[in-house]
Amino acid sequence: MDITQGSILIAQPFLQDGYFKRSVIYLCEHTEHGSLGFIMNRPQGLLLRDVFPHIKNGNFPVFEGGPVSSNQLYYIHTLGEKLSDSLEITKGVYWGGNFFELAHLIEHGKIRSGQVRFFVGYSGWEANQLDEELIGNTWFLQPSVYDELIQVKPTELWGTELTKLNPGYRAFSDFSHDPSLN
After folding, report:
1. Is residue 3 domain-resident?
2. How far apart are CA 129 and CA 79, in angstroms?
3. Which helix (H) or strand (E) is 29 found in, with range?
4. 3-state SS of 86-148?
5. Are 39 and 65 in contact (CB under 8 A)?
6. Which are the contacts of 170, defined by CB distance < 8 A and separation ≥ 6?
7. 163: domain CATH number?
8. Count of domains in the chain?
9. pLDDT value at position 172?
10. Percent of all residues in the chain with a pLDDT value above 90, rounded to a whole number
11. Is residue 73 within 8 Å of residue 129, measured between CB atoms?
């Protein structure tokens, strides 16, 4: 399978990298210059209102998107033309856009929780780096349906996506994060 925007990366069960272990990453960009995505299953325990107290109704969870630019807020959404300057990732799924318009829509209760997901930082790869990691079996690469991704509880997403690849992989998601505890 070719790497495409809107695909997901599913961490291999034996990936021990402390940062990406058991992660599911939604790819927003893949070009000859590199790749960029967001970890979909790592909530920070913060809400948007914790980061921006002035945004009324900011009850949207904030996720850890990755180790790059971890002092920046990013978002992917399904708002399309409602948010100017958005970049289409795949049909019906967008990245970024005018934050002031987004804040206005949130303050006026015009956005549901499934329409936008916020991230602190992003996951990035230099040119050809992701290709090499796929060859080295760091990740499984799969097409995705964004609406299905955001319906799964973040704590269950890795196991759910792993099981879609092969039902026999379900056992891996039941193992403790620390193998010494098994």
Report:
1. no
2. 31
3. strand 24-31
4. CEEEECCEEECCCHHHHHHHHHCCCCCHHHEEEEEEEEEEECCHHHHHHHCCCEEEECCCHHH
5. yes
6. 159, 162, 163
7. 3.40.1740.10
8. 1
9. 65
10. 80
11. no
* Residues 113-141, mean pLDDT to the nearest whole number: 95
Tokens of 78: 């399904």
Residue indicated by tokens 């495409």: 4
Q: Characterize the bridge pairing of strands 116-126 and 34-39.
A: antiparallel
Q: Report if residue 2 sits inside a domain.
A: no
Domain membership of residue 97 as a residue range = 8-181
Please check whether residue 62 is in contact with residue 85, taking contact to mean a CB–CB distance below 8 angstroms: no
Q: What is the mean predicted confidence (pLDDT) over 65-89?
A: 95
* Cβ atoms of 26 and 17 closer than 8 Å: no
Angle at alpha carbon of residue 99, lines to 97 and 105, rounded to 5°: 105
Is 158 part of a structural domain of the chain?
A: yes
Q: Is 110 inside a domain boundary? A: yes
Name residue 69's amino acid: S
Q: Give residue 182's pLDDT.
A: 44
Identity of residue 142 = Q
pLDDT, tens only, 142-159? 999 998 889 999 999 999
As a whole number of angstroms, the distance between CA 71 and CA 170 comes to 35
